[in-house]
Amino acid sequence: MRTSRPAAAAMLSAFPNTWITEPRHYDRTAATPATPATLARAVAFIDADADLDISATDIARAAPVTVRVLQLAFRRRLDTTPMAYPRRARMDRADAQLFAANPGDGTTTVTDVAPRWGHVSPSRFCARYRDTFGQAPSDTLRS
To answer: Which ranges constitute the DSSP H helices of 16-136?
Structure first.
């Protein structure tokens, strides 16, 4: 029994057959009909609530589509995921806040900015910031 499965798999892949079918039309276009409107609603929701802890379900509900359609739309059109997009939006907002702060007044610190944009640990925020922008957030704050 164990040797028959690999043999069958080898034969199916070696010889022409109809067992493995091409994706159906609706498999290839599941997110296509609503993609521009879906993405516009999803991105608007994320941008409006970038400081909140939102889930893929929240984004899908705002779009309104299923989570799977949302995933397909983000992957196919933006080459990202519905959860990576808000993380990047929060990081961009943190960068903008650090850049806009007056370094001489001392009222804005990296430890103040990190939790504002969803990062509980300032050290993890600094590591992610450096990975994203190539410099420490304190360097951006001082610039």
So the answer is: 25-28, 35-48, 56-62, 67-73, 84-100, 110-116, 122-133
**142/105 Cα distance (integer angstroms):** 11
Structure-token match 């164990």, residue found: 2
What is the Cβ-side half-sphere exposure of residue 44, based on CA atoms within 13 angstroms? 10
Phi, psi of 81, rounded to the nearest 5 degrees:
-115, 160
Q: Is 50 in contact with 93 (CB distance < 8 Å)?
A: yes
- Asked if 91 and 132 count as a contact pair (C-beta separation under 8 A), the reply is yes
Residue 59, token pair as written in the block: 């984004």
Residue of 6, 65, 11 whose CA lies nearest to 39 = 65
Residue-wise pLDDT for 116-142, tens only, equals 888 888 889 999 999 999 999 988 887
